[in-house]
Each structure stands twice: as structure tokens, then as C-alpha cells.
Amino acid sequence: MASRNVLSVTPGAPEPEALAKAAQVLRSGGLVAFPTETVYGLGADARNPEAVRRIFAAKGRPADNPLIVHVPDIATAQSLVTNWPARAQMLAEAFWPGPLTLLLPKRPEVPDLVTAGLPAVGLRVPAHPVALALLRAAELPVAAPSANPYMGISPTTADHVARGLGDRVDLILDGGPTQVGIESTVLDLTGAVPLVLRPGGVSLEALQRVLPEVRMAAHLEAEGPRLSPGLAKRHYSPQARLHLIEGRGALLSAAQAARDESLALMPLGSPAVDLPGVQVRPMPASPEEYAQQLYATLHDLDAAGATLILAERPPETPDWHAVLDRLTRAAAER
Ligand code: TXA
Ligand code: MG
């Protein structure tokens, strides 16, 4: 979908003129959608409350859901917090640039709007060359949620952004499809124990290799108090209903029973499935590749008018944790 506000850039070596233009939009308080290695972000100058307000308006996002601030390096992250603990340094050195967001106590210069009034700010250095180059060109911290309407599926292409937000964005930098495909891991470093509030691109095991004391927040395992407002049970949802089904046999039986629906199947790995009149999207058997394709598959099936999606449930092993989290939320009853 070519649109007036879309600017294509070379993913590995973004054109300086395009970056300069995007940086100018950010500096003047506008909204720029840009690729990160996880999903596309909807960025604004994090120091400018008016600009940040536009993000919430464009997404239709409630003001009690805080935004992640994207910075080009550790030094800039340090400049936005009141305390940079040794843990933060170790994790940043190990995983930045990359899909890890660290929550740390914010300085007063970070507007309350960005953190939804919470005392901590989420910080991350994204690994995508376009995102990094934009942050360097703009020379300002960029607040950016995923560039989708509130409760929608996160965008992994510029086309998803254009379809979801259209001209509510001043400029979309098209740097091709994103690599990781699901959002960053959100890690709270403000308490005695570092807690994963949202599983994502960096696994719990990888975090524990650097900091063995990291834990999953209890509410991810059981229903408990919500520490992060963005962790609404239902989230990342397609228009179609999504059901998770254990095992290939049960998947096929459910497909037979759902004759009246505009049905789509997401079987896991091989062997292939072929059912007349059913849209079949085979999903990769590796969690990394599955994550990379998940949102694009859901966007495609929505666009194709599916009313019911049956997905074969991936295994409950740690390496599938983040993918299962997103699938479970997408499948939650509305
Ligand atoms: O990969 C990502 O994280 C993408 C790219 C664009 O960086 N961003 C993203 O942002 O997914 P968003 O806004 O869609 O999700 C951010 C999550 C939300 O669940 C939010 O509640 C939580 O992080 N979060 C952000 N700042 C927080 C804070 N200060 N305290 C608690 N939770 C926070
Ligand atoms: Mg989001």
C-alpha cells in the first residue's frame, strides 16, 4: 500500500536524507513510525508532552498504559534515570542493542505522561539499523509503543502500520519486515528481585545466564495483581476468533466441526495439511521463526476475512514461552 506518508529506506544502510526528514518530524513534535528489530514503533519526542499525547490519540490508547523510551546508547539511558544499578549495566552490555526493555526510576525530565504516572521508565536500545540511525539523527529520546491501534496486532511491516494507523502518522519509514517479530522482554529492575513483566525477544534463560536471580512476575503464571498496565489479558488480537488446539489430530477434528466458518488453520511444522476451502498457514516448528511470522500471519488472515483461526498449540517448553504468551492473549475471550 503506497501512501504519501511512507518513505522507503534501505534496512541495513538507511539513506541520510530520509533519516534527516524523519528526525525533523520528531523534533517538531510529529509522529514517525519506524522499524525496530521486534515490531514497528510509533515514535515521538519523549521530552515533549504534546508530542507524546499524539501517540495516545493516534492509537486510541488509554493514558494509564506507559510507553517505552528508545535511546541510542547506554549513556543516554543513564541520563534519564535517577539510579543505574550494576544489574542494569550488566544486562545492557549483554543485550543492547536488542529486544530488552529495562524499567528504572525515572528522572523528573521524563514527562509523567510517558510513564503513565508510574515512577519507573522503560528504556531500550533497539538493534535495528534504521531505528538506531533515526535515534542518532534526531538526537532525542523517542517514546514509542507498537505502531498499531489499541488492542490490535502489532505491526511487523510498514504496510501493517499504514493499514492500521494511516494518516494518523506523519511519516512511516519502511525498512522491510522486522526480524524478531514479537515485542521486547520487559524487565522491572526497581525491586529487590528483577522481574520479567512481559516475556519477549530475550528469553528468561538468556537473562538468567547474566543475572541468575531474574524471575517471571507471578501474575504471568497465575492471576495476580497486574504490575504492568499493558499486560491486559486480551491483547494482540486478530478480528477473527482464535482457538489454540493441542495436537494435530484434535486440530483436524476441530476443523471438520467448524464447517460454517470462514476457517483458517495454523498447523505447527510438518507434515502439511490440505483441506478444501480452508486457508492453511503452516507455522515454523522453531520458536524464533514462529515469532517472526506470527503477527504477519494474523494480519494476513484478518485481511483475508477469516472468522475463525485454529492454531496448533506449541509445546509448553521455556523456549516457546514468549510465543505462547502472545498466542494465549490473542485467543483470550473478548
Ligand atoms: O519491542 C517493543 O517493546 C516495541 C518496540 C516498538 O520497541 N514496543 C512495544 O511497546 O511493544 P508497547 O507500548 O506496545 O508495549 C510496552 C509494554 C506495555 O505492556 C507497557 O505497559 C509496558 O511495556 N511498560 C512500558 N513502560 C512501563 C513502565 N514504566 N512501567 C511498567 N510497564 C511499562
Ligand atoms: Mg503494543
How is the topology of this model organized?
Blueprint: E1 6-8, H1 16-27, E2 32-35, E3 40-45, H2 49-59, E4 68-70, H3 74-78, H4 86-95, E5 100-105, H5 112-115, E6 120-124, H6 129-138, E7 142-143, H7 158-165, E8 171-174, E9 185-188, E10 195-198, H8 204-210, E11 215-216, H9 218-221, E12 241-245, H10 248-257, E13 263-266, E14 279-280, H11 287-303, E15 308-312, H12 321-331
Parallel strand pairs: 1-8, 2-8, 4-6, 5-9, 10-11, 12-15, 13-14, 13-15
Antiparallel strand pairs: 2-3, 3-7, 4-7, 5-6, 9-10
Helix pairs in contact: 1-6
This protein binds threonylcarbamoyladenylate and magnesium ion.
Architecture overview:
With 334 residues, this protein is an alpha/beta fold. The protein has 12 helices and 15 strands. It has helices at 16-27, 49-59, 74-78, 86-95, 112-115, 129-138, 158-165, 204-210, 218-221, 248-257, 287-303, 321-331; strands spanning 6-8, 32-35, 40-45, 68-70, 100-105, 120-124, 142-143, 171-174, 185-188, 195-198, 215-216, 241-245, 263-266, 279-280, 308-312. The strands form 2 sheets. The protein has an 11-stranded mixed β-sheet with strand order 1-8-2-3-7-4-6-5-9-10-11, with helices on both faces. Strands 12-15-13-14 form a 4-stranded parallel β-sheet. Strand 10 (195-198), helix 8 and strand 11 form a beta-alpha-beta unit. Helix 1 packs across helix 6. It is globular and about 60 Å long. The model is unreliable at 222-226 (pLDDT under 50). Bound molecules: threonylcarbamoyladenylate and magnesium ion. Threonylcarbamoyladenylate is lined by residues 36, 38-39, 41, 65-68, 99, 101, 103, 115, 118, 120-122, 126, 144-146, 183-184, 186, 197-198, 228-231.
